[in-house]
Amino acid sequence: MAWNEPGNNNGNNGRDNDPWGNNNRGNKGGRDQGPPDLDEVFNKLSQKLGGKFGGKGGKGMPTGGGGALGFGVVAVIAIAIWAFSGFYTIGEAERGVVLRLGKYDRMVDPGLNWRPRFIDEVTAVNVQAIRSLRSSGLMLTKDENVVEVAMDVQYRVAEPYEYLFRVTNADDSLRQATDSALRAVIGDSLMDSILTSGRLSIRQSTQMTLEETVASYDMGIEVVAVNFEDARPPEEVKAAFDDATASREDAQRFKREAEAYQNDILPKAKGRAERLLKEAQGYSERVTNGALGEVAQFEKLLPEYQASPEVTRSRLYLDTMEKVYSNTSKVLIDSESSGNLLYLPIDKLTGGQNDKNRSMQETSTYDQIELEPQSNNQSNDSTSRSTSRQGRY
User: Fold this and answer.
1) What confidence tens digit (pLDDT) does each residue in 319-339 have?
2) What per-residue string of b and e applies to 83-110 under the rule 16 or more CB within 10 Å gives b?
3) How many other C-beta atoms are found inside a 10 Å radius of the C-beta of residue 341?
4) C-beta neighbour count of 45 within 10 angstroms
5) CB of 171 within 8 A of CB of 150?
6) At what angle do helices 64-84 and 38-53 cross, to 10 degrees?
7) Angle (nearest 5°) at CA 245 between 242 and 249
8) Does residue 221 contact residue 176 with C-beta atoms inside 8 Å?
9) Any idea which of 73-82, 173-182, 275-284 has the lowest mean pLDDT?
10) Residue 135 reports pLDDT greater than 70
11) How many C-beta atoms surround the C-beta of residue 143 within 10 A?
């Protein structure tokens, strides 16, 4: 039975039929202790608000106007709270994606912004933070070997809307794309290249493939860097691969030592060869110039010899013997000469004479020959001197 429907038996306005079973028996003053009447609650609230905001009224004043005013005040307060709760802040490194009733509306820049609460929903996305994910696993190489590879990818959000709504989970999609790109690149590479010198090319190829995949799916992600962390064979064959790696390192070390030895020897050999070449060129020029000089001297001496052959021949003989005996320490004495022999320190005198002769040998004797026209007297004197000198020798 309804709460305010009158009863039909005992004249207590139906309170004996209270649905909660709370009759007025045993209650002090005969008041009902059940749940309060909703109309009564709203009337009391309206009276209180009307008394506070509607001024003093008589007891006979109807309460309808005060209740309407109270509801208006409550509505104004609720609207004010709703308006102030719509203010929000986007950080400097963030961008806000606004959804209006679940549909994309606009992008919001950093700073203080406002949205109508319960109508717009804003999701802040950090577009400057560098994020990282790691991909690793056992992969098959081109030469049918198994290698364990680990790679780290660093990325950031470039387009917040695409990052949130183009794919279901952009981070997980990027992880799967990284794993796929890495397996594709490793599958086209040889085992030795992966473990030794091919790391740079593998990293570059993986980054290019990953960027193409991200662009094709419109993930809103920018790949910043791809780092090739580790590549090693499985534990079961690691010892054999370590031996192979050590042998390759020894080969590289021996090669570098040979190159160092080559770089040390070749410059010295080239310098020695260049020196010998210069000496040979100098010797050739010296001999050639000497021969040319002797030819010039001979051409100069030939007319003189043709004019007076006897005198020229004697002169040549004397000059030749002077050169020969100037380098010896023997002293020749004319046995036909008479007189006492005076002893002199001939060895010391000849030492000084030898020094003088050496300085004179630097210039050719033939250059000092000046022949004059032959006369009878001079011819006789020369013949006698030549005879005497020849006897002495």
Assistant:
1) 888 888 777 766 666 555 555
2) eeebeeebeeebbbbbbeeeeeeeebee
3) 7
4) 15
5) no
6) 80
7) 135
8) no
9) 73-82
10) yes
11) 11
